[in-house]
Design a protein that fits this description.
Strands 5-4-6-7-11-12-3-13 form an 8-stranded mixed beta sheet, with helices on both faces. A 3-stranded antiparallel beta sheet has the order 8-9-10, with no helix packed on it. A two-stranded antiparallel ribbon has the order 1-2. It is globular. It contains 13 helices and 13 strands. The relative contact order is 0.16. By secondary structure, it is α+β, with helices and mostly antiparallel strands. The chain folds into 2 domains: 55 residues, Alpha-Beta Plaits (2-Layer Sandwich); 290 residues.
Length: 383
Amino acid sequence: MLKIELSKPARKDTYLYPIAKMLKEVVKTERCMLCGGCVAACPVSAIGLKEYKPALVSNCYVCGICYTHCPRTGLNFDEVEKHVFGRVRTLEDKIGVYSSIAVAKAKSPELNKLGQDGGVITALLKYALDKSYIKGAITTKKASSTSWEPTPFFANSSSIHETAGSVYSVSASNQLLGKVYHEYADFVGCNLCLNSIALVGTPCQIESFRKMQFSDHGKLKITDIVSFTISMFCWGNYHYDKLKEFLESKGYDLSKITKFAIKKGVLTGYENGKEIFTFKISELNNIKMPACNECTDLTGELADISVGGQGVSEGWSFVILRTEFGERIFNEAVEAGYLEKGSSETATKALNEIIESSEKKKTQSNTYIKNSQDPLVKLSHRV
């Protein structure tokens, strides 16, 4: 393990160190999207999560890594895209840089039923794990069969099915990057797990990963363990407690819901396959994380692979393949029988709806960004 030479810790009552700057500029202003990146990046575990917020939990050594790794303190999208895709997007790249698109679903009836919109993400991870492309995957699962509270989870081939399905409450899954880097290397049998982990997250969590990956600050390159990233489409995230309270106020028991889905701006809840409620996502604005207001990314434009249920029929997913490795993994999974691929005509038709939805989200968020009086808001996005 990399040894870090540290000076004595800063006093907890001073506001001169970087973590206080991050807490003041990002957390207290409710711009934090709870990606967990600062928790993962801190080399001395000085940052933890309390009540859905990063907090100082131990001595800070004033290294500044937390502040410089936070995507909400500024993100150079052009540089990230050059590193990841080899070029910067043009005006024609309405949903970010990509090489191809597809419609697909898991070939396994079990994964297709368990997964969200056809179980594509779970099937992709299962293939990558079975073929030893990766040793594990950082993702999210429900706390229990009756609780929708999201829990960051490090899955292997035998437990990946536990992560199937989307949880529409925020999960700080990136916090596991540091834990996997430092604690799980021997467990999964790899040397620091270099290029041996897949990371699944929302668009903002992928932004967080890319900020850490290409940051010039800090010596702990915990992102080196990640081989490829998968982003889920996302209209916004909700606090678990607030979502539960909202549904209970409408007479619904969250523990009885077996699946959620968001399509065309509508949140739908199901109980054993039966639709029991629908709400326009505009009705949920009061319980949505405030940080989501400035997010312009619907499809996960900085990921290797993006997956969502927008524009396709029930039981299928729309897949955006953005990097050479992402496309390779997907095509191999199709050839190996882990995935079933739909027609190119269906994918082309779905693309138009997805571009329209993406443009709608960008317009709404860009209006918020331009009207913001906080200079960091403009610095953190491409407007």
